[in-house]
Amino acid sequence: MSDRTLTKASPASPTAPDPSSSRHVDAGDEGYSKDLKSRHINMIAIGGAIGTGLFLGAGGRLADAGPSLAIAYAVCGIFAFFVVRALGELVLYRPSSGAFVSYAREFMGEKGAYTAGWLYFLNWSTTTVADITAAAVFAQYWSAFSDIPQWILALIALTIVLTANLISVKYFGEMEFWFSIVKVGALTLFMLIGIYLVATSHKVGDHTPGLSTITDNGGIFPAGMLPMLLVIQGVVFAYASVELCGVAAGETENPEKIMPKAINSIMWRVGIFYVGSVVLLALLLPYSAYGAKQSPFVTVFEHLGIPGAAGIMNLVVLTAALSSLNSGLYSTGRILRSMAMTGSAPKFTARMNKGKVPYGGVLFTAAFGIAGVVLNKFMPGEAFEIVLNLASLGILGTWGMVMICSLYFWRRSKAGLVERPSYRLPWAPYTQIVTLGFLVTVLVLMFCDGGVGRWTVSLVPVIAAALVIGWFCIRKRVARIAAARG
Known about the structure:
Elements: H1 38-49, H2 52-55, H3 57-65, H4 69-93, H5 99-139, H6 143-146, H7 150-165, H8 169-200, H9 211-215, H10 226-230, H11 232-238, H12 244-248, H13 255-284, H14 296-304, H15 309-340, H16 359-378, H17 383-414, H18 430-448, H19 451-457, H20 460-485
Helix pairs in contact: 1-8, 1-13, 4-13, 4-17, 4-18, 5-7, 5-15, 5-16, 5-17, 7-15, 7-16, 8-13, 8-15, 11-17, 14-15, 15-16, 17-18, 17-19, 18-19
Subcellular location: Cell membrane
GO cellular component, one term: plasma membrane
Membrane topology: Multi-pass membrane protein
């Protein structure tokens, strides 16, 4: 039996059907509440674009690439916007909690959905480890926690966020709303303070901020262009959650009104918060003052010497790590349920509790967080970088699947099989093709980086082989479920 059984309209049909009557129906969308409001979606979109990759990862990348990191953030931000805009067009066509997995199922069949789903799981299962690692590192900043082993703090962070995530989607939405308020408010305050310090040439420690901080320390490319290119895979990780609003669309009323506004706002938020923050960091202190072990924002406030300011900023970046962890458990639970309903994920990941939360998928993802706790016990110093590179593979795969789905959708619209909404990815199909080329380039750069990056890319054939073996193990079950659904 074909793995496209669940799709009502086949592209091989001799007569193009009415697009409105041929819309795909996904069993994985059943059973959810619609409790997410417009304010939740808007702030989830912000929270997805501001996370651990900026608050913690920017420090080490500034130390490696210098001020040119702002250019890397700008370039990656453009492609991140293309990805989320393509997903937004698909969401307006058919909102689904299965998001790109559901669209892969419609346009590429169950093999496509299976591949998209497990690549996304690779992304978030490893990002979960990165987030609990970041939370533990941030917590150890305070003397009260400095003597507590990193793995214990990581376990506490995972337990707290997991418990909150299992209650209900409304509770998740409220948590993410306030997490995002804290992140945006703190970054806005930092930028206002930074602009004031630069404008008044107020000393930051022993340094006078301004353009001279860049020009006197090697310029925009203090170590050449190569370091900027090599940190791009880490910058891609910083944008890992931009697709979250597409997943959340399946649990909100009137997504056709809410989603365009939320997605369009991502572009200017990226410009202000990511690029703007990195530019200010480069103007305030020499790039060599930053490091991978501490948030660059905390570094600035420590040099300012304002009592308690660094501690408050550290609390903010801790909030960002918990927010990212919260989002990962939420989205992966929904994706796994969409897969489980068609047989391509373990059956128990389809289970929902009374709060209409797919707790099976959430717990399955959290179980991999336990592996992160073990990693923090035996390799506390390398845990973040190791999982960051693994997560980057999942992100590249997920973004690639989104753009491939978008290409299939564009092709079907040209054939008259579906109707594109008025909210569209501009310059299709060239945008999808260029973005896919960019993702392949990032993979090549990871390999050229050597060390952990090269080791990570060498895992691509292993991951591909695991996906192929996994598919042959489940394909009969997938076909049987498809046949039962008719």
